[in-house]
Amino acid sequence: MERERAAGVYRRGAVSWQDGRMTISASGADGWRWVNEPSEWTAGADDLRVVSDGQTDLWRTTHYGYIYDTAHMYGRELPGDLRLTVTFDGDYAEQYDQAGAILRIDEKNWIKAGAEFVDGALQLSTVVTREMSDWSVSPAPVGAGRVTFELLREGDTVTVRYGLDDAEPAEMLRLAYFPPGVPALAGAMCAAPVGKGFPVRFTRLDLAEPGD
Questions:
Q1: Residue-averaged pLDDT of the chain
Q2: pTM of the full predicted structure?
Q3: Which domains does the chain have, with CATH numbers?
């Protein structure tokens, strides 16, 4: 499947950059905002550090029967096609500790993709939700540290790709339907469904949309 990254096709819209360093504002900076703001977080010169609150999650009904819309999400709403790239690492410790990227139209329509701690091992995880949640995982290599996820939204499709450590996100993990032409929040997320919470560090949060 060919990837198009032609210069000028996408306009960069990362949170903000000064001298090559990322800076993130809590709200109001070009529309970036929290959904379910965590109790503890800091934005530094080159990262966003979050301690996920415990008992937080994103899930709807399938298998477990419950609905959660309490994960921490930091992003910006865009009207249509976009490319979201998120790099992160975390101190995963408890079942289902998770961090990654999020595309969210509303509480019933969203995609989250990232790393999740399941049965004692780190998994590369994608959940696609349209009323009901659909979960798929692939084992992460032992010793994997930083992970980068890319969510590319084009028309009615979102393509999920990933890269490990310093690699660009070139490996495809999932291709999924996503309602076209509907504004969606795009950004970073984390949650601790079972545990008391865990720290996450985001070092890249880029958001691009088609150029004029």
A1: 88
A2: 0.88
A3: 10-210 (2.60.120.200)
